[in-house]
Predict the structure of AbrB/MazE/SpoVT family DNA-binding domain-containing protein.
Amino acid sequence: MVRCVIEVRSAVLIRATLTSKGQLTIPKDVRDRLGLKSGDRVVFEFEDDFVRLRVERRKGLGELMGSLPATRPYPGKEAEREAARQYLVRKTLEGP
């Protein structure tokens, strides 16, 4: 038995022009479709004669939590606030 799988893709062709400085403006339709914002990075992946553009997503603060080793246990939000208050009182009393 021979199985044939046909993949049908709807291709959209959008063009952009390279400037004399080597810069490429990504058209608004493409930016919107990919959810690109100012400061986002785009990765160029080369495979034979093809180039694939991939968005390098920025990590949110929640994703970074726990990525660095803790040097001490977290005392809690209230303890941090109290330490900040004490610091500000000390700095205010010391003066300039």
Notes: The radius of gyration is 26 Å. The helical segments are 28-34, 61-64, 77-94. The chain has a mean pLDDT of 84.
